[in-house]
Amino acid sequence: MNDNQPSKDRPDDHAYMAAVDLGSNSFHMVIARVIDGDIQLLHREKQKVQLAEGLNEQLVLSEEAIERGLSVLAQFADTLIPFAPQSVRVIATYTLRRARNSATFLRRAKAVFPFPIEVISGQEEARFIYQGVAHFEHFSGRRLVIDIGGGSTEFAIGEGAQPLRLSSRNMGCVSYALQHFAQGRISDKRFNRAILQAEQELEPIVSSFKAAGWQQAVGTSGTVKTIRDIIVGMGLTSNALELSHLLALKEHLVQQENSYQLDLPGLTDDRKLLICSGLAILIAAFNLLQIEQLVYIDAALREGVLYEMSDRLQHLDIREHSVASLQRRYDVDMAQAERVSQTALLLFSQVRSQWQLTDEDAMLLGWAATLYEVGLHINSSGVQKHSAYILQNANLPGFNQEQQQLIATLVRFHRRKIRADEIPAFSLYQLPQVVCLLVLLRLAVLLNQKRRDDLLPELQAEAGSQYLQLKLGTDWLAQQSLLAADLMLEQKSLKKIAFVLDCPGLVDVVPG
C-alpha cells in the first residue's frame, strides 16, 4: 500500500472508501477519498482469479476456484484493516451470480474477509459500469458502453448520469476461451463459431439498443484495453477502434495458430489465452450494433460503486428513486403506505437496541412497508404473493440481490401463514434478524388495516430474544374488538415460528 493508505489515527477517516469487484476473471480493489464532493483515487489492486474457469456445465464452482478466490480475499482483507465496515462495499458479479454453490463460497469467505459480499444482478452490474464511465468523463450526448468481463458482457446506453438501456449477456472472455479456444488453439473456424454464438446472444437486445441510439461508443475494463493497446502497438490506430482494426487483428491471430506463442505489443501473459475470445465478442458487438468507432475509458464497475457510495454519504440514495418509481408504476396507495411505514419504524425505534438492528435494517423495513401492496395491481386476493413476485423480479436499481430478496420475503409473509421453510437462506442477513423485521411489518399492517390516521393509541414496545411485548391499553382494545381478535390470531401464527407476541390486556378483551 502507498503512503495514502488511511490510518486509524487520521481525523478524516470517514472520507475514505474502498470498492471491491469480485469479477469472473480478476478481483479488483480501489481505495479513494472524497474531497469537496469529488472522488480522488488513491490505490488499486488487481489479482487474477479466473473464477469463471472453475464453473462447470452444471454451474458448480470448483474447489480450486473457491480457494483461489478466498486467497485473494484474505490479501484484500489485510489492506482493508483500517476501514470501518460502512466504508467498504464488495460487489460480486457473473460467476457468483450463476454458481449453484455460491452460498458455500460466501460462507467460507466470512472466515477470511470481514466485509459483506453483495451479489448483484446483471442489470445492476451494467448500471454500475455506466455510472463509472459517466462520472469519470463528461460527455454531452448519448453513450453506448460495453464491458467484456470474464463470464458476461454488459451493455448500457445513457445520457449524462442517467442510464436508459441496460443489459447483461452470458458471454465472457473466460467462458468463451474455454468453449471455443481450448488449450489456446486458434483457427478461423473457431473464431467464426465464437463470433456467431456472441451474435446469437446479442440478437434479443439489438433492436432496442439501436432504437435508443448513441453518439459515442465506449469500451471499458481489461479486455477492451488489451485489444486497444495491441491495435495501437501494431500502428493501426492511435485512438478509436474500428471494425477494420478488429478484423486485421483477427487475421493476425489466426496466422499464429496458438495463443501461447503470441508476442504482441500490449499483450500480457495473463491475457494471452483470453485475447481471441474477447476479440470475437467485440467483433460481434460491432457487427450487430453497427458500431463505427469505439473509444476506451479507464473506468468501470468499481468506480461506479465508489460514486454511489459517495452519493449515500451525501444521503442521495438511488434506492429511494427505485422505490418511488415502483410506487408510481403500480399506483400504490401512498397514504396507507405512509401509515404502515411510520408504524413499523416507530416500533423499530423502540426495539432496535434489544434486537441489535441497524440503520440499513430500518431502511429495508421502511421500503417493504411502502411496497407491500404493489400486488394489488394484479389482484387483491393473495396480494402478498403477487406483491412478492413483483418485488422479486422487478428491476430495482441500487439494490443487490439479497436486499431485493429480503424485501420480497418480508412482503410475501406480511399476512396469513408464515412458511418458515420458504424463507431463503441469506448470506448478508441472519434468520433471527429476518424474523424480527417480519414481525414488525406484520404488526404495522395489522394495526393499520382500517386505513385511518386517527385510530392508533400511543404504541409502546419492548423486546427480547424471539419476544415482543406490545402495549396498546385494555380500554382501547375493548373498543377495537375485531383488531383484538386479529392480534390473538397473530399470536398463534407467530408461536408456530417460535416467536412470542405478548399484548397485555388482550386476553381480557377477547373471549377464550
What does this structure look like?
- Residues 1-14 have low confidence and may be disordered.
- The chain has 512 residues and is of the alpha/beta class.
- It has a five-stranded mixed sheet, with helices on both faces.
- The protein has three domains: 13-120, ATPase, nucleotide binding domain (Nucleotidyltransferase, domain 5, 2-Layer Sandwich); 123-300, Exopolyphosphatase. Domain 2 (Nucleotidyltransferase, domain 5, 2-Layer Sandwich); 317-509, Hypothetical protein af1432 (Orthogonal Bundle).
- It has helices at 63-79, 94-98, 102-109, 122-136, 173-180, 188-212, 221-233, 243-256, 275-289, 301-313, 318-329, 334-355, 359-371, 383-393, 401-412, 431-447, 474-479, 481-495, 506-509; strands at residues 16-22, 26-35, 38-48, 88-92, 117-119, 142-148, 153-159, 162-169, 216-220, 295-296, 460-464, 467-471, 500-502.
- Helix 4 (122-136) packs across helix 10 (301-313), helix 7 (221-233) packs across helix 9 and helix 14 (383-393) runs antiparallel to helix 15.
Question: What is the strand and helix layout of this fold?
Answer:
Elements lengths: L15 E7 L3 E10 L2 E11 L14 H17 L8 E5 L1 H5 L3 H8 L7 E3 L2 H15 L5 E7 L4 E7 L2 E8 L3 H8 L7 H25 L3 E5 H13 L9 H14 L18 H15 L5 E2 L4 H13 L4 H12 L4 H22 L3 H13 L11 H11 L7 H12 L18 H17 L12 E5 L2 E5 L2 H6 L1 H15 L4 E3 L3 H4 L3
Parallel strand pairs: 1-4, 4-5, 6-9, 9-10, 12-13
Antiparallel strand pairs: 1-2, 2-3, 6-7, 7-8, 11-12
Helix pairs in contact: 4-10, 5-9, 6-9, 7-9, 8-9, 12-13, 12-16, 13-15, 13-16, 14-15, 15-16, 16-18
Keywords: Hydrolase
GO molecular function: exopolyphosphatase activity
Pfam families: Ppx-GppA, Ppx-GppA_III
